[in-house]
Specification:
Distance between the termini of chain B: 76 Å
CATH superfamily of chain A: Aldolase class I
Helix content of chain A: 25-40%
Strand order of the largest sheet of chain A: 3-4-5-6-7-8-11-12
Radius of gyration of chain A: 22 Å
CATH topology of the largest domain in chain B: Rossmann fold
Number of domains of chain B: 6
CATH architecture of the largest domain in chain B: 3-Layer(aba) Sandwich
CATH superfamily of the largest domain in chain B: Thiamin diphosphate (ThDP)-binding fold, Pyr/PP domains
CATH architecture of chain A: Alpha-Beta Barrel
Largest interface: A-B, 41 and 63 residues
Strand content of chain A: 15-25%
Number of helices of chain B: 43
Shape of chain B: globular
Largest sheet of chain B: 9 strands, mixed
Strand content of chain B: 15-25%
Structural class of chain B: alpha/beta
Structural class of chain A: alpha/beta
Helix content of chain B: 25-40%
Number of domains of chain A: 1
Number of strands of chain A: 12
Oligomer: heterodimer
């Protein structure tokens, strides 16, 4: 069975990519993922805020309380140099690159243009094969319009594009008014691929402490359907690569993603929950499924169920919504609610 | 061409010391600490000495230990040095005798400082070095930063050749901390002076089993004397050797030094002889006056010991009629100070006829007292007299023994070519840092010379800083503060209402204000006195709202870059555009290594500054309705009004000798008169949300939050709007509870808000206590606070037990409004102790933070209750505090014993019942203590007027019959390091003392040097690469005795356990040791979260809470109780909240990982040990 696929210009041995997670946060982990047969590896995101805030915090505490009191003009020895900016991340990139042969995709998370985008260049110099640019913005400012946000995103992509020559994949949230248009714009701004979708971690309330607390829930297969639908819609409309992320847990999820038009499918939650050995399990089942149905290659099924290629393209549009509503039947027992 | 750098004296000296040594033993003491810090940092970076190897730097537990280590290192042949000052040098004296007696070459670099006498002083004079004169060391004095750099080399060369050890001395602060542009010696320069054969000769004399010798023998009366005389010839050669190296140095560098450098008229009739930084000011004055035809001169002494009469006489003009010997030290009871006596002796012994020379001695500049051209002129005027005043003082007004000389203080001789700028800032706003930066910009970026000297506050929170900067085309010798500034910047607008800042502004000077008001409002907001001075002196006024600019850029309250830019924009020191380029270069240099984001932020500040700077058009008349504020209220006691208030205003220099207590005894409870108003926000109470738990009261480091309960009738006269609520106490529901805040004393730390557990049900972001702007509530707050203080105190003999936080909050704190840092982790413990036992406590306080915020003048925080009782407090030294406290205990024990004997003897006079009650009352609680106090009053009444000696004795001792509580307070530097030997002995002695160690895990007061309490993995000074060894487990060591009460506490982790431990410790009739986790700004944490961090320390298992109570053994119980649960978070989770751990990840992540893993192992291992201990039976 030919499982090969192409993503961001790389020929991958199969379509299962380990996406950003704690599993790839150190060199040993990256090596483990390669040993487990991941086709490519995305490193955890380094955040714009993380880089900038970390440096500003360091700056704050190195100066905090200094030059106030005659006996204690400062409180810390001043090192010759600090590993500021994304230095630790760059170290991970270069060491991981040296340790593995599969394509290594670094990930940079931010939302607005600024000086931080030159970190992309440093990441390229450190040896990353590609860059996943994770655009993550919670628009809480009521004076900021959707077009302001979109412009900010696009400017960011353009700015990063200027910094690097390696391929850029842009990871997006699904929350766009006109997603297809926006997706195209991102590609025009310089994206070589789109990664759909970013998961938003919603905070929760602690009722005892009356506090807002972070709450992380790993994905499940149900979450697959949103990226599945959008990749299916965009496939063939926009000339770009697609990576499906969120909700990939088994070979069927992978198959669905590929059929919608994804070049690769990305996994995190499944690997975190059940271990990196799942890559080979899923590949085996994927192969078996394809063999049983006489598929020859992954390329063959890629996009086969995209909106462009299905007979009933209403399925992806508004009509499908009606169908879903109409498919609902009143509970005859009256017990369900 | 040598390299020019603008650096301070400490760095200038450390550079040479590092180059010329192989081993450096260090211990922190102000003002010499930075020399050790530089050496340690360079060593940790692997920098090399002259021979291409990195010196080993070893921190010791005390200066005595450092001297011992140096001695051992020298004896085995390594080039070795140390740095010290003051009491530190005194602790080295025994070793110094040995080192000299064994003819061992070494140089100790000293930042000379006062020795504590009637009070401690960290500032500069020669008391310390003069106390070591007999040790047999050469003493080489450097008068400026350049000289300190140069003479460090000459001292090293000379000691190697002469084999006589050298003290290389600069003046503490005036030289050690003055930033000055100097020419740096290159390695080639140093190599040209240092003879490697002499280094090898030193090495060859080292002890080695390959050529064994014995040194350090015990000698008997038969030979000791002769042996002591055997090295005389070497001492005689020192002067020639030093001069020889000075001459070599001059050939190498062009800078000429002589053992006795004469400046002035060749035919001078009046000559001052002296050493140290003051000589710079004299040189400046002499040149000024000689140019006007005065026949005067200055003889600067470089080599003071061995004192060369020959060189002295050779340098002294033959025409001299009056020779003034100036000493920067005092030897009470002597005929005169050391230099005076040397000069008199030298002239008396001279073969030439110098008998006609009038020699007078004078004291100047003690504890960095200003020494100005005006004073120097006063001295020369006095020296004109045929019978000039001998043993005079200058710079003070001595109206007791009339030693002081008069002088015209208005004299100013500074040339117009020197730009003189004075900046008034807050420590936290970055003013000093920016000024140091400006000096570098001008000093290293232009041909100008530059000088910076910085005056700091006595408080640690809201501290005022005054920077004095000079720039000019010639080297600057003005070793005194600026009195005629042509640029004045006020970085805190509020200062204008409190200090007479413009008194030192020259006519036509430029005045720059950081104003919260816009350019149209600012004039009207100035006090009338300030407006009048601005108009009279024709000042040019500029204004900027720097806080607003800083906030908009994300700089918080750091206005340094903004104000620096404004300075360059309007001072004319540099052309504006050139200055902006240079500021940006400096920003890149200073902040580049902290990341691009930081650089960008500061660049933005530069640009925004220029856009927001405004020149203010001045009206012709002052019209403000505002006036300057009095330092203290009218009702303050006379001593506060007359003595402390001038000190608060910065006018302490004007106080006459008679104004001051002669033995260092000061009234307590004076901070309440100094309303500092340093926080823009203060907590405001919401009684509807409050659950009256008392946690905010407990944690407030400055005792500004108080609470009480009282009958409702007591509130009848309360000011309108005074808040109170129904008391939530069992059995007291009919009473009212109130919680009040003194906004004027608040430092704005917000610890109270953070610990408040009660949330507003409608807005969970608000609590029972919330920060609000002070300005709108200030007046009302003052009235409420005054009324609160008038409410009756909660009765201490109430049925209420003060054994929990809720009840303890109601007790009056007798420790209030200290100058500790905002959010200090130490002071809440002291306040708690003062609430529980303050009215009967004697406190011995080790030198350190707690002695500074506890005892630094002008005002001090230990307070008194309405009966006039409160803690009696004293600080002896750093190293001896446990012993000092034990001494207090012994006095009390002895006096109690004698008083009880007298009660028995005088039973008939007293009455048997009263006597028996006095003798049998155990005073185990507040009720019994109160009853005993009443008995003592009865006793006094009965004894009053009795004439027998015994009755008089008992009357004088009666109060001792009320139980006293002895507290020994100090930090970890004292308890774990320098004072450990004494602490161990005192605890072992079994007496009833209560020791509390305020453990910040570093030497906080001297700037965060590592102690043995510093934890593994933490970065601290002297542990730049992260401390590689675990924290000493002081508590567990103490438990080994079996009869010491030991507790480890952390208020933020468990306040109930804290209260319990303190009460148990105090009640234990034996030694107690409490180790209290204290967050500190040296940890690099958000101080508002200090209590959370205490909790994290305990949650991680790093700071387990426990109590070891020997009394439990008698009850058949396990004396050890583990009070905290098994770790819930990792050590790393706790540690990463603090810069001290985090920064290692940003410098050496591999090392950080390794140390963090090791630290976790230690934490787990130690916790398990405690679990095992708690499980054990009795």
């Amino acid at each position: 069975m030919d499982l090969k696929t192409k993503y961001l210009g790389f020929e991958l041995k199969h379509p299962l990519v380990a996406s950003a997670s704690p599993l790839s946060s150190n060199v040993a982990g990256v090596r483990r993922l390669e040993d487990a047969n991941a086709a490519a590896i995305v490193l955890p995101s380094v955040f714009e805020e993380q880089i900038e805030k970390q440096d500003k915090i360091l700056d704050h505490y190195m100066d905090f309380g200094t030059h106030s009191f005659a006996e204690a003009l400062d409180y810390f020895p001043e090192p010759e140099e600090f590993k500021v900016g994304p230095s630790e991340y760059l170290k991970l990139v270069s060491e991981a690159k040296a340790a593995v042969d599969v394509p290594l995709i670094a990930s940079l998370n931010g939302d607005s243009p600024g000086g931080w985008t030159n970190y992309a260049k440093l990441i390229e110099q450190a040896g990353a094969d590609a860059l996943e640019l994770n655009l993550y913005h919670i628009s809480t400012d009521s004076s900021m319009s959707s077009s302001d946000v979109e412009k900010m995103y696009l400017d960011t992509v353009s700015e990063v594009r200027k910094q690097v020559s390696i391929p850029i994949a842009v990871k997006l949230s699904p929350f766009f008014t006109a997603f297809a248009y926006s997706a195209k714009e991102f590609c025009n701004a310089g994206a070589d691929g789109l990664v759909l979708f970013n998961r938003f971690y919603q905070p929760d309330y602690d009722l005892d402490m009356l506090e807002v607390v972070p709450h992380l829930v790993l994905s499940n297969s149900d979450e697959l359907r949103l990226p599945l639908r959008w990749i299916a819609i965009l496939y063939g409309q926009i000339e770009t690569d697609f990576a499906l992320t969120s909700g990939v847990h088994n070979h069927k999820d992978v198959l669905k993603g590929l059929m919608a038009g994804a070049n690769v499918t990305m996994m995190t939650s499944e690997l975190l929950k059940k271990g990196v050995g799942r890559i080979d399990d899923i590949l085996a089942k994927l192969t078996k499924w394809m063999k049983k149905r006489d598929y020859e290659s992954v390329m063959q099924l890629q996009g086969s169920m995209s909106m462009k290629h299905v007979a009933d393209d209403d399925a992806f549009e508004r009509a499908n919504y009606m169908k879903v509503l109409q498919s609902w039947k009143e509970d005859p027992t009256g017990k369900m609610y | 061409m040598g390299q020019y750098l603008t650096i301070d004296g400490n760095e200038a000296v450390a550079k040479i010391a590092f180059k010329l040594n192989e081993v450096i033993a260090i211990y922190p003491i102000t003002p010499s600490s930075p020399m050790g810090e530089w050496a340690d940092m360079w060593s940790s970076r692997g920098q090399k000495n002259l021979w291409g190897t990195t010196p080993l730097v070893q921190e010791m537990q005390a200066e005595g230990g450092a001297a011992g280590t140096v001695h051992g290192s020298l004896q085995t042949g390594a080039l070795t040095t140390t740095f010290t000052a003051s009491q530190g040098l005194l602790l080295m004296i025994p070793n110094m005798y040995k080192i000299a007696g064994e003819l061992t070459p070494t140089v100790f670099h000293i930042a000379a400082r006062s020795i504590a006498a009637q009070g401690l002083s960290i500032f500069g004079d020669h008391s310390d070095v003069m106390a070591t004169r007999a040790a047999g060391w050469a003493m080489l004095f450097a008068n400026s930063v350049q000289e300190a750099h140069d003479l460090a080399l000459i001292a090293n060369a000379s000691t190697l050749k002469s084999r006589i050890p050298f003290m290389h001395i600069m003046d503490g602060f005036r030289t050690s901390h003055e930033v000055s542009k100097i020419k740096i010696l290159s390695d080639d320069n140093i190599r040209a002076i240092i003879d490697d054969d002499l280094v090898r000769a030193h090495r060859a004399r080292g002890l080695t089993p390959d050529k064994p010798v014995i040194r350090g023998t015990a000698q008997n009366p038969d030979i000791f004397f002769q042996a002591r005389e055997s090295s005389n010839l070497l001492y005689q050669e020192v002067a020639d050797i030093v001069q020889e190296y000075m001459d070599k140095f001059a050939l190498e560098t062009g800078r000429k030094y002589k053992l006795f450098d004469y400046i002035g008229a060749k035919d001078a009739k009046r000559v001052i002889i002296m050493m140290g930084s003051g000589a710079e000011a004299v040189e400046e004055t002499v040149k000024h006056l000689v140019a006007k035809g005065e026949k005067i001169g200055l003889l600067k002494i470089r080599l003071y010991r061995p004192f060369s009469v020959e060189y002295f006489l050779k340098a002294l003009p033959k025409t001299v009629e009056t020779l003034v010997a100036l000493d920067r030290t005092k030897e009470p009871g002597s005929i005169g100070e050391p230099l005076y006596q040397d000069v008199v002796t030298a002239l008396a012994e001279s073969k030439k006829d110098m008998s006609k020379v009038q020699v007078i001695g004078g004291r100047y500049g003690l504890s960095s007292k200003e020494f100005t051209p005006a004073m120097i002129m006063g001295i020369f005027t006095e020296a004109k007299k045929k019978k000039a005043k001998n043993h005079f003082t200058i710079g003070i007004v001595d109206d007791i023994s009339f030693t002081s000389l008069d002088y015209d203080a208005t004299v100013d001789i500074e040339p117009d070519s020197v730009t003189r700028a004075v900046f008034w800032g807050l420590g936290s706003d970055g003013t000093v840092g920016a000024n140091k930066n400006s000096i570098k910009i001008i000093g290293e970026g232009t041909d100008n010379y530059a000088q910076g000297y910085f005056v700091y506050d006595s408080k640690k929170s809201g501290a005022r800083t005054i920077s004095h900067l000079r720039f000019g085309p010639e080297p600057i010798h003005s070793t005194y503060l600026i009195t005629k500034a042509n640029f004045v910047a006020v970085h805190q607008f509020g200062f204008l209402e409190r200090y007479d800042i413009l008194a030192n502004a020259a006519k036509g000077a430029t005045l720059l204000l950081n104003s919260p008001f816009n350019e149209k409002q600012v004039w009207a907001e100035l006090p009338k006195e300030v407006q009048e001075q601005i108009i009279a002196k024709k000042l040019e006024l500029y204004s900027i709202n720097a806080y607003e600019v800083a906030k908009s850029i994300g700089l918080g309250n750091r206005i340094n870059t903004i104000m620096q830019t404004c300075f360059f924009a309007i001072s004319g020191v540099l052309e504006k555009d050139e200055a902006i380029v240079k500021i940006k270069e400096a920003i890149k240099k200073s902040y580049g290594k902290r990341g691009e984001a930081v650089v960008r932020m500061n660049y933005a500040a530069v640009d925004a500054s220029l856009e927001n700077l405004h020149k203010i058009k001045l009206p012709k008349k002052a019209s403000s309705k505002k006036t300057m504020q009095a330092a203290v209220p009218d009702f303050a006691p006379e001593f506060v009004q007359d003595v402390l208030a001038p000190m608060m205003l910065g006018d302490g220099d004007d106080l006459r000798v008679s104004a001051l207590p002669i033995d260092g005894t000061y009234p307590t409870a004076t901070t309440k008169f100094e309303k500092r108003n340093i926080s823009l926000e203060a907590p405001v109470w919401d009684p509807d949300v409050c659950i009256q738990c008392g946690k905010c009261v407990l944690v407030c480091p400055h005792s500004v939050i108080r609470s009480t309960i009282a009958e409702e009738k007591e509130f009848a006269t309360a000011p309108e709007g005074f808040e109170y609520a129904d008391a939530r106490w069992q059995g007291k529901q009919e009473q009212k509870y109130t919680l009040q805040i003194s906004a004027e004393d608040c430092t704005g730390c917000t610890l109270c808000v953070e610990v408040c557990p009660a949330k507003n049900k409608s807005q969970v972001g608000r609590k029972a206590i919330n920060m609000e702007p002070v300005a709108p509530i200030l007046e009302k707050n003052r009235q409420d606070w005054d009324f609160f203080l008038s409410l009756p105190e909660v009765s201490r003999i109430d049925e209420m037990q003060f054994n929990n936080v809720k009840n303890v909050q109601l007790l009056e704190p007798l420790f209030e409004f200290s100058g500790a840092c905002a959010g200090c982790g130490e002071t809440p413990y002291l306040k708690l102790i003062s609430q529980l036992y303050g009215d009967r406590s004697v406190i011995a306080n080790a030198t350190g933070c707690s002695s500074i915020y506890g005892g630094n003048l002008p005002t001090t925080p230990w307070a008194k209750n309405k009966d006039g009782r409160g803690p009696a407090w004293s600080n002896s030294l750093f190293e001896d505090n446990a012993e000092f406290g034990l001494g207090m205990r012994l006095t009390i024990d002895k006096q109690v014993e004698y008083a009880r004997e007298l009660v028995i003897r005088l039973k008939k006079t007293i009455g048997a019942k009263l006597a028996d009650e006095l003798l049998t009352c155990k005073q185990i609680d507040e009720k019994e203590i109160s009853e005993q106090r009443a008995r003592v009053e009865k006793l006094k009444a009965k004894l009053k007027g009795k004439k027998s000696s015994e009755a008089k004795d008992l009357l004088s001792l009666a109060d001792i019959l009320v139980k006293k509580s002895v507290w020994i307070v100090g930090g970890d530097g004292w308890a774990y390091d320098i004072g450990f030997g004494g602490l161990d002995h005192v605890l072992a002695a079994g007496k009833n003392v209560n020791v509390i160690v305020l453990d910040t895990e570093v030497y906080s007061n001297t700037g965060g040097q590592a102690s043995k309490a510093t934890s593994l993995g933490a970065v601290a000074k002297f542990a730049a690469g992260g401390k590689a060894t675990p924290k000493k487990d002081l508590g567990m060591i103490a438990t080994q005795y079996g009869y010491i009460y030991v507790a480890q506490i952390a208020m933020g982790a468990n306040d109930t356990q804290t209260v319990k431990a303190i009460r148990e410790a105090e009640s234990y009739d034996g030694p107690s040791l409490i180790i209290a986790y204290s967050q500190c700004i040296a940890h690099g944490i958000n101080m508002a979260k200090g209590m959370d961090q205490q909790k994290n320390a305990t949650l991680s298992g790093y700071w387990p809470l426990y109590r070891y109570d020997p009394r439990r053994k008698d009850e058949g119980k396990n004396p050890f109780q583990l009070d905290s649960r098994k770790p819930k978070i990792s050590f790393k989770d706790y540690a990463m909240q603090e810069n001290r751990y985090r920064m290692l990840y940003q410098t050496n992540p591999d090392q950080a990982d390794e140390l963090m893993a090791h630290a976790q192992e230690i934490v787990s291992e130690r916790y398990q040990t405690l679990v095992d201990l708690a499980k054990k039976g009795k």
